[in-house]
Amino acid sequence: MSLSENIMATHNELGRWGEDLAVEYLETKGYSILDRNWKSGHKDIDIIARTAEEIVFVEVKTRSSAGYGDPWEAVNYGKLRNLQSAINHYIHYRQIDLPIRFDIISIVATDPSHPEIEHIEDVDIM
């Protein structure tokens, strides 16, 4: 395996670990997980959950350190546009008739045994 392939594998493993951690976090908060890594073409939604009142679309960003900024800062304009498109597709595909919101879960795993989790609720996606 080349260095770039190894770095990508490590990056992907960190991302999967972060998503698993985010699912556990949401479930402890009473959310029901409906879907994970739902794809709409090349666009995807990390986690789709439900509370008693609404459907919650969640983008998870995980970093091994905050050296390059907080993970949530990687959710830029282009990513938001892609998410908006995927969310609209999901709503129509699943015929969702509930209020929706978009959240970001930002995880910094400087110490993986005590990761820092920041849950940013109701992010404006427009």
Cα radius of gyration in angstroms = 15 Å
Query: Distance between the terminal alpha carbons, to the nearest Å?
Result: 41 Å
Instruction: Provide the β-strand percentage band.
Output: 25-35%
The spatial strand order of the largest sheet comes to 1-2-3-4-5
Biggest beta-sheet profile:
5 strands, mixed
**Helicity range of the residues?**
25-40%
Total number of distinct structural domains: 1
The beta-strand count equals 5
CATH architecture type: 3-Layer(aba) Sandwich
Describe the protein's architecture and organization:
There is one protein chain. By secondary structure, this protein is α+β, with helices and mostly antiparallel strands. The chain has a single domain, classed as Trna Endonuclease, Chain: A, domain 1 (3-Layer(aba) Sandwich). Helix content is 35%, strand content 32%. The protein contains 2 helices and 5 strands; from the N terminus they run H-E-E-E-H-E-E. It has helices at 3-28, 77-94, and strands at residues 32-40, 43-50, 55-63, 100-108, 116-120. A 5-stranded mixed sheet has the order 1-2-3-4-5. A hairpin with a 7-residue loop joins strand 4 and strand 5. It is globular, with a radius of gyration of 15 Å. Residues 1-9 have low confidence and may be disordered.
